[in-house]
Amino acid sequence: MKKLIGLLFLLILLLFLPIFNCFTISNGSTDQLVFVGKIKDFENFDVDFTHSVNKTPVKEFYKIKGKGFNLYKAEFSSYGAGMSDGMDIDRAKISHGENNEIYLDLDDDFEIITYYVGTVADHRINYKDKTLHLNQLLEVKSPAVLALKRLSIFDILKVGK
After folding, report:
1. Cβ neighbours, 10 Å, residue 124
2. Rounded CA separation 48/26 (Å)
3. Residue of 87, 88, 81, 69 lying closest to 149 (CA atoms)
4. Edge-to-edge strand list for the sheet holding 20-27
5. Which of 93, 137, 95, 94 lies closest to 117, judged by CA?
6. Distances from the Cα of 62 to the Cα of 71, 109, 152, angstroms
């Protein structure tokens, strides 16, 4: 009987102990997890979207660095509200392509990344050969928070990929 109780206790502990490092997307307003992925699948990923003001494409490139993210490159074709010219970021280098594309080489670290799901933007997270559309995970105007978190089996099962 003691072995059965010990085994049951161990199973419950394993179910609720946050031991898995995961890439997560949650609703920043409610903290509800809406996506959980393996960190190795997101070692390098990009986020592309349509800028809500000037309606031009933007692509941001990230890699996992330590317990957070490193934005190392951005590509866009037009400046607009919220678009950096690189002057506000240390170590940023700007260059231009043949068709006036703007390239920023960056080295900017973030603990979390937040995008607001928009009506125009259609934010897409591209990793490996897969794509996640934030507007399919969250409602419009919701803050989508990307983070690296330690989760339990119970937390992961609640999301249900």
Report:
1. 17
2. 18
3. 69
4. 33-38, 20-27, 143-151, 113-116
5. 137
6. 5, 9, 26
Distance between CA atoms of residues 19 and 149, nearest Å: 10
Rounded to whole angstroms, the Cα distance separating 145 from 34 reads 10
pLDDT 10s digits, 121-143: 999 999 999 999 999 999 999 99
CA 19, chain centre distance (Å): 20
Residue position matching structure tokens 């700007």: 94
Q: What pLDDT score was predicted for residue 54? A: 77
Contact 48, 58 (CB under 8 A): yes
Here the tokens at position 54 are: 């000037």
